[in-house]
Specification:
By secondary structure, the chain is mostly helical. 70% of the residues lie in helices and 0% in strands.
Length: 573
């Protein structure tokens, strides 16, 4: 906690305060205005399914581009170096393209309100209920991380009390989501996307000017590595792939198989294709072509995000005069600074009056974007996949809209409590990736088999998903109890970091889920193919996109983005 209620590293000028106040007034005004357009369930939970590909695509990537993203990956970059960019160019782009080109037709044609809703249609109520409950639990934990992130910004940069910051920002988000539902969240997310880019670009631009460009920054980082890692002064923080042949050669303690298979093939695919927080935005598209294009548009912007979240972490390694430590390090109780604070510290270093207000507003926008995404996804899944089928099955549409508004408020209060859990982890991204390995990695196996394999059964889907979740939590617990022994088996290296552990846990839990689903499905009776129409490839006729030239087709732009992504990996090899 801050030593006093207002004790900051910088002072806000009147123009800075005015910028922040105008932003709060504007987002609340959007919520009040859009309240009149969110009266029915379809309008409140799905924004009427009338969004264009560009609006849905920007909301899709913006729902993920929250304060968690900005602060978390800057922190992870300070901790692990440019290897954090793997979570974008391997851990996002291929998965986003896969969602748009392969999986989105089945989500969209089935007209489901949620991913658990798809599992109901494909596997039955047992798999739906299990996925809905685990997703709701994960979502409030994720929402709490966004609260934690924003409170850290307010505490470090402005000197605001940690608890006060959580309550003020959280209640603002709750108000505009309760008023306008998903429609309000989407409009604010598009606004916030623009603000994040304008504000967050300040640090990499000014930082590269100070260090003399990329080569100057790399030289400074090499000078500082012996101070940061005296036990291993030759660690390479500025290359993505060439240091991954041996886990001992990189700060993450990761072998390339963990990135390619654990992250790229399982965890990232699971997050971008089954996490309803982001998928919900695409389901608001006005037609199938727009739904397929939205993730591709989002991928184009996502590919550029490392320049505003990875570069600040690298610049922190180069220019900060202090050594940052894990959040749970004992020195934190004596005025130390954690990895999570690298972005606020860099903001304080470079931003003067007016510019500081823009930077702070960008981080506030990021926080609100991430939290709004979580609470809208939570309210939809709670209302449609838990409350309606399990608690009250005979309510009318107005009743479920009212429940959606109330559970938004309840979800915010639960999230405030979960925000404090993040204090017990080394960095917020270690915490986030643990949650994803618990709940997202197994879910991807269940959904993918359901869409691509006609023989998958309801029993197979349920038991496979349960086995995946339990095995991932079991591996996490084993590492906590007996770290030195367990980490060698789970992450294949005694040098593995928390992130390496998460990647391999995701891989193993995903494989366990798939194996159990296949075994149980082969031992149980399959559904008739006529019941799988609109749900499974091979049983579903995909509607044509229209008579568009190649340059206007999703497959064309997906290919262009994939080629650029490969080039970026080669440049920073």
């Amino acid at each position: 906690m801050a030593p006093s209620f207002f004790s900051s590293v910088v002072s806000l000028s009147p123009i800075d305060v005015l910028i922040i106040v105008i932003y709060f007034i504007f987002v609340l005004g959007i919520g009040f205005y859009l309240k009149h357009f969110a009266k029915t369930g379809e309008e409140f939970f799905m924004a009427g399914r009338e969004m264009t590909a560009w609006i849905a695509g920007l909301a899709f990537v913006s729902a993920n581009l929250g304060a968690l993203e900005l602060m978390g990956w800057a922190a992870n970059t300070y901790q692990y170096g440019i290897m954090a960019a793997h979570w974008y160019w391997i851990g996002a782009i291929p998965a986003m393209l896969f969602l748009g080109l392969v999986m989105m037709p089945f989500y969209y044609i089935s007209k489901t309100h949620s991913v658990p809703g798809y599992l109901l249609l494909r596997y039955g109520p047992a798999a739906r209920s299990l996925s809905a409950i685990t997703f709701a639990f994960m979502t409030v934990l994720m929402s709490g991380i966004n609260m934690f992130s924003m409170a850290k910004v307010m505490q470090i940069v402005l000197g605001w009390n940690f608890d006060f910051s959580i309550w003020m920002s959280s209640l603002t988000v709750a108000l505009y989501v309760v008023l306008g539902g998903l429609l309000s969240a989407i409009f604010n997310e598009v606004l916030q996307f623009m603000l994040i880019w304008f504000g967050a670009l300040l640090i990499p631009i000014l930082g590269l000017i100070e260090t003399g460009g990329w080569n100057g920054m790399v030289a400074r980082i090499k000078q500082n590595v012996p101070l940061i890692h005296p036990d291993n002064p030759n660690l390479d923080y500025t290359h993505m792939w060439r240091v991954m042949g041996n886990p001992a050669d990189n700060a993450m303690g990761m072998h390339w198989t963990g990135i390619v298979f654990g992250l790229g093939a399982v965890l990232a695919m699971g997050y971008w294709t089954t996490d309803f927080l982001v998928v919900q935005r695409v389901l608001t598209a006005k037609d199938l072509r727009a739904a397929k294009m939205a993730p591709i548009i989002g991928a184009a912007f996502k590919m550029l995000v490392p320049f505003i979240v990875i570069l600040p972490g690298l610049l922190g390694l180069a220019v900060l005069p202090i050594h940052l430590v894990p959040e749970n390090d004992p020195s934190m109780t004596h005025g130390g600074h954690s990895y999570n604070e690298v972005l606020p510290l860099m903001l304080a270093r470079y931003c003067g009056p007016g510019v500081l207000g823009l930077g702070i507003t960008a981080l506030i926008a990021g926080f609100m974007s991430g939290m709004a995404g979580n609470v809208t996804a939570f309210s939809t899944v709670w209302t449609y996949d838990i409350y309606r089928p399990l608690i009250k099955t005979d309510g009318d549409d107005a009743h479920y809209v009212s429940m959606g508004r109330w559970c938004t408020i309840i979800g915010v209060f639960i999230s405030i409590g979960t925000a404090y859990i993040a204090l017990s982890f080394g960095s917020i991204m270690d915490y986030v990736q643990s949650l994803f390995s618990f709940f997202i990695a197994p879910l991807f196996g269940t959904v993918l088999l359901g869409m691509l394999w006609k023989r998958a059964t309801g029993a197979g889907g349920f038991w496979g998903l349960l086995a995946g979740v339990v095995s991932s939590i079991g591996m996490f617990t084993w590492v906590k109890i007996d770290h030195d022994t367990a980490i060698t088996y789970v992450a294949l290296s005694p040098h593995a970091s928390a992130q390496a552990e998460n990647m391999y846990s995701a891989l193993w839990s995903g494989l366990i889920c798939v194996a159990v689903t296949i075994i149980v499905s082969l031992a149980t009776k399959a559904r008739p193919e006529e019941e799988l129409v609109g749900l499974v490839r091979g049983c579903t006729e995909i509607p044509p996109e229209g008579d568009y030239p190649l340059i206007h087709r999703p497959i064309f732009w997906g290919g262009i983005i994939l080629i650029i992504c490969v080039i970026l990996n080669l440049i920073f090899w």
